[in-house]
Amino acid sequence: MKLYHYVHCPFCVRVRMALGLLNLEYKSIVLPYDDEKTPLDLMGKKMLPIFEFKDGDEDETTSNESLQIIQRLDQRNILKNELIKEPRFKELEELLSKIGSDVHSLCMPYWIWTPEFNDSSRKYFTDKKEVKRGPFKKLIQNKDQYLNSLNKTLEELESELGDFYQSDELTILDICLASHLWGMYIFPEFQFSEKIDQYLKRVKSLTRFEYHEDFWKD
């Protein structure tokens, strides 16, 4: 099995966390962000993650949808994937949208300096994202605006957290939530509250997740 992914992408992180929890072996392929050919050849569009399943003697390429990938991988339904059809998942999606907007504005200028990027992919990523969000320099200058917004959202989130999100066991909801929050660990002037930090470390332990694992291997 093969996973084509970006390290910073929360939807890719979802799949990596699920694979770790399920203890499934796979080949990790981190694509340069300026590689358009590979995803277009595989799926007809530039969107990751892409997961290739091995069925018998033939490869079968799944869709780009992270939740569909996870549901297919999780054959014993350990993550209670039926939760994505419940109203509370819609509520979580609204929360993730607010989180994602602030996290991306804060972290994009820092993600491009991680080992995932080289000069070419860094320029490609910056040019693409600045069209939507404006110059990265301005994002950094306006960081307090995004930090204040994010902190308000996280204060609301804390009321929904016990050991896990609205549950006493890890579910697909935690995979979705933790993957969207994880990028903030790279932001140099931010600390999660103790409650959220411990929650994320709990998810990390259960899913055997390491953010830049692919770049630490020999």
Describe the structure.
The chain has 2 domains: 2-76, Glutaredoxin; 81-207, Up-down Bundle (Glutathione S-transferase Yfyf (Class Pi), Chain A, domain 2). It is 54% helix and 8% strand. The protein contains 10 helices and 4 strands, in the order E-H-E-H-E-E-H-H-H-H-H-H-H-H. It has helices spanning 10-22, 37-43, 66-73, 87-111, 119-133, 136-141, 143-158, 172-181, 194-207, 213-216; strands at residues 2-5, 27-30, 50-55, 58-61. It starts with a strand and ends with a helix.
Residues in β-strands, percent: 5-15%
From the structure provided, what is the oligomeric state, counting identical versus distinct chains? single chain
The number of helical segments is 10
Tell me how many strands there are: 4
State mean pLDDT (0 to 100 scale): 93
Q: What are the segments in which pLDDT stays under 50 over at least 5 consecutive residues?
A: none
CATH architectural label of the largest domain: Up-down Bundle
Structural domain tally: 2
Span between termini: 20 Å
- Order of strands across the main sheet: 2-1-3-4
- Write the H/E string, N to C: EHEHEEHHHHHHHH
Largest sheet: 4 strands, mixed
Shape: globular
Q: According to CATH, what is the topology of the largest domain?
A: Glutathione S-transferase Yfyf (Class Pi), Chain A, domain 2
Rg measurement, Å: 17 Å
Percent of residues in helices comes to 40-55%
- The CATH class of the largest domain, by name, is Mainly Alpha
Question: Would you tell me the structural class of the helices and strands?
Answer: alpha+beta
